[in-house]
């Protein structure tokens, strides 16, 4: 019987289970790390890190491992469990619906939405939001959020529409370099075949969710679920009355927000206010 990787306990976490299963499947097929590296096009160092639980199995490695071992969707399913370990419980159902949604509509008042965040922006939020947490745990949180973004790169991505409060552009999360990179990333998604971004300017005045987040997730059967979040709590709603009310609120914010071309211009102008740091004088 194959022995589990030293130090890993599959009963302790999905991350450990993933590493143990990777080693087991590799040994069953008689593949060395070098050979598996050639097959899945990931470095031996990275594969060893996943086996030992030191690295997260970021997409698309799970699909490649399933193809290499002929394990159906085993590793893809394990990756889903790994992601959920690094996500607040209240968000679990939202994540499941997000992965299946045909349409995603989101408003965020003060923070760039997770599906749009760059790794540096994520890392800053997690570091500030979890004082004292270790770098390994931060890596896990960043990896889980990056995994969520794969939904936008699927062969059939959802129609995604974001309304961003102007404060999301102005709050200097991580400093000038992080924000410049973050806003540059937004520019490429303002108006594409599957994505739209609008900015709700300060001049629009008060809105329904001035300090929160609203997500509308519409599945292929046209059913819509609402996820609404404040600073310390989040709730899921799927009753018709609440859904219709939130959809109307979202539509009103769309009407008040800048059109995509003006939103692009505002994002670009704000990005240029974040001057790159000058190198120290020698």
Verbal overview:
The chain folds into 2 domains: 14-84, lambda repressor-like DNA-binding domains (434 Repressor (Amino-terminal Domain)), CATH 1.10.260.40; 97-271, no CATH class. Mean pLDDT is 88; it is low at 1-5. The chain is globular. The longest helix has 17 residues, at 240-256. The chain has a 6-stranded mixed sheet with strand order 3-2-1-4-5-6, sandwiched between helices. A hairpin with a 4-residue loop joins β5 (224-229) and β6 (234-237). α4 runs antiparallel to α5 (74-85). By secondary structure, it is of the alpha/beta class. It is built from 12 helices and 6 strands.
Q: What is the topological layout?
A:
Blueprint: H1 14-28, H2 33-40, H3 44-51, H4 61-69, H5 74-85, H6 92-100, E1 103-108, H7 119-129, H8 135-148, E2 159-165, H9 167-170, H10 176-187, E3 195-200, E4 213-218, E5 224-229, E6 234-237, H11 240-256, H12 260-271
Parallel strand pairs: 1-2, 2-3
Antiparallel strand pairs: 1-4, 4-5, 5-6
Please supply descriptive tags for the structure shown above.
282 residues, globular, single chain, 434 Repressor (Amino-terminal Domain)
**Straight-line distance between termini:** 61 Å
Largest sheet: 6 strands, mixed
What is the ordering of alpha helices and beta strands?
HHHHHHEHHEHHEEEEHH
Structural class: alpha/beta
Task: Report Rg.
Answer: 21 Å
* Outline type: globular
Q: How much helical structure, as a percent, in the residues?
A: 40-55%
Number of strands: 6
If you average the pLDDT, what whole number results?
A: 88
| Whole-number tally of structural domains | 2
């Amino acid at each position: 019987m194959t022995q589990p990787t030293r130090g890993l306990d599959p009963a302790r976490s999905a991350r450990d289970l993933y590493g143990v299963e990777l080693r087991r499947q590799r040994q069953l097929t008689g593949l060395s790390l070098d050979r598996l590296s050639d097959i899945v096009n990931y470095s031996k160092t990275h594969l060893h890190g996943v086996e030992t639980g030191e690295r997260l199995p970021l997409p698309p490695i799970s699909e490649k491992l399933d193809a290499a071992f002929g394990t159906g969707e085993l590793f893809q399913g394990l990756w889903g469990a790994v992601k959920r370990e690094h996500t607040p419980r209240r968000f679990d159902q939202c994540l499941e619906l997000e992965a299946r949604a045909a349409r995603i509509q989101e408003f965020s008042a003060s923070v760039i939405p997770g599906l749009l965040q760059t790794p540096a922006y994520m890392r800053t939020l997690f570091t500030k939001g979890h004082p004292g947490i270790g770098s390994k745990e931060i890596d896990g949180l960043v990896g889980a959020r990056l995994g969520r973004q794969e939904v936008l790169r699927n062969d059939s991505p959802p129609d995604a529409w974001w309304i961003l409060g102007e404060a999301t552009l102005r709050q200097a999360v991580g400093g000038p370099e992080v924000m410049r990179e973050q806003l540059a990333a937004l520019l490429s998604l303002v108006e594409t075949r599957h994505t739209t971004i609008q900015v709700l300017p300060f001049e629009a005045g008060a809105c329904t969710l001035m300090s929160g987040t609203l997500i509308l997730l519409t599945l292929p059967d046209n059913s819509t679920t609402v996820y609404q979040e404040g600073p310390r709590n989040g709730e899921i709603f799927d009753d018709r009355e609440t859904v219709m009310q939130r959809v109307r609120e979202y539509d009103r914010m769309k009407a008040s927000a800048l059109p995509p071309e003006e939103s692009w211009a505002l994002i670009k102008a704000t990005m240029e206010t974040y001057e790159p740091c000058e190198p120290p004088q020698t």
